[in-house]
Write the structure tokens for this entry.
Amino acid sequence: MRLLFSFLLLILANNTVAADMADTPTGRVILTVSGAINTKLNATFDLAMLDALPQYTITTHTPWTQGLHTYRGFSAVDLLDHLGSTGTLLQITALNQYMTEVPLSDFLDNGAIFATRQDGREISVRNLGPIMVIYPFDEREELKSERIYGRSIWQVSHIKSIVLTE
């Protein structure tokens, strides 16, 4: 009986380590998330970890690229759910320290995504990657506004989840 109990404890410990390892980047870190999250101070992600989140696609024109492109990536809703966050506002910072605020409702109501792929290829820093916020501009005319264009940040490197209180 004691041997069986020890064996079960060993299996449980190994499963816990495996679960923790799934939340540890093994590749180059491309995104850091902080703020109202139920993990350590900062959560870091490599591309493989972001690809493990549910993926969504948007095919649209943008003001900063020529032609129609298909973007694939993850939703802030799934990312924050994964982190146990109750945040409703995202402060998103780019590699060049440009920062904008995007309400979580833009991902719920407007279908925005954090794109990591354009036309099936990873988005390089040179081409506004590795992560960019994309809206389905062609689907709704009201998304073609300076307010939304200002939220369409590229070269995303950091997200801070904020809980707004009334």
